């Protein structure tokens, strides 16, 4: 009986020693980790569930759209900042409307008359600066607020002007500069060019002060026919020693002559 108990005791002791061989290193490692402070505590069950769901998702959460970010930034800004930005934007839009040549014109108020029409299908007389000279129909004189007057151009009466030769020479020697005074296109009859039309003559520019209006059809210079603005300049070059220039135009289906006296 005693021998059986000894056998059982030795067997139990051998098992305990075998288990200790595995448990002691693990216990030592665990204790050393706790001493170093690097051990991690498992996250709560809810966080583990969220991480698991995120890891299983095949579609990542999308970035917020531009509109969402804009609304968020707007809500975060104080009211004064929003008011300042609104005023700044209004000023920028107003400046853009002034400098943008393609901006839509404002409608004429009902209590004000429409501007008079120009030449055949031409533009009306703009309002603005001071210009003394013929009106759109070439009769009488009228002051209007346009571009500043050019001292090299002096009106003498209905359709008559005194012009410094240097001004005409400047444009005749710079065709591109002359073309910037107005838009032009040829006039045709039976397939042949017989003149050209000037359009978009800005109120107060040199061409305007020389008596031209948007829609005028230029037919000849000193009886020399022209089919384009460059040909009109060439016609002047042939006659640059003359003291007078006569430009025949057609306005509102009526032919008229603009006369210029050239001075030094």
Average residue-wise pLDDT: 70
Indicate the proportion of strand residues: 15-25%
> Shape from CA axes?
rod-shaped
CATH architecture of the domain at 153-263: Roll
* Run of helices and strands: HHHHEEHHEEHEEHEE
* Radius of gyration over all CA atoms, rounded: 46 Å
Assign a percent range to the helix content.
40-55%
Q: State the CATH class of the domain at 153-263.
A: Mainly Beta
**Class from helix and strand fractions:** alpha+beta
- The total of helices stands at 8
Could you give the distance between the termini? 150 Å
Uncertain residue ranges: 57-61, 94-143
Determine the CATH superfamily of the domain at 153-263.
PDZ domain
Question: If you consult CATH, what is the topology of the domain at 153-263?
Answer: Pdz3 Domain
Structure characterization notes:
Helices cover 40% and strands 19% of the residues. It has 264 residues and is α+β, with helices and mostly antiparallel strands. It has a domain at 153-263: Pdz3 Domain. Strands 1, 2, 3, 4, 5, 6, 7 and 8 form an 8-stranded mixed sheet that branches. It is rod-shaped and about 155 Å long. The termini are far apart. Mean pLDDT is 70; it is low at 57-61 and 94-143.
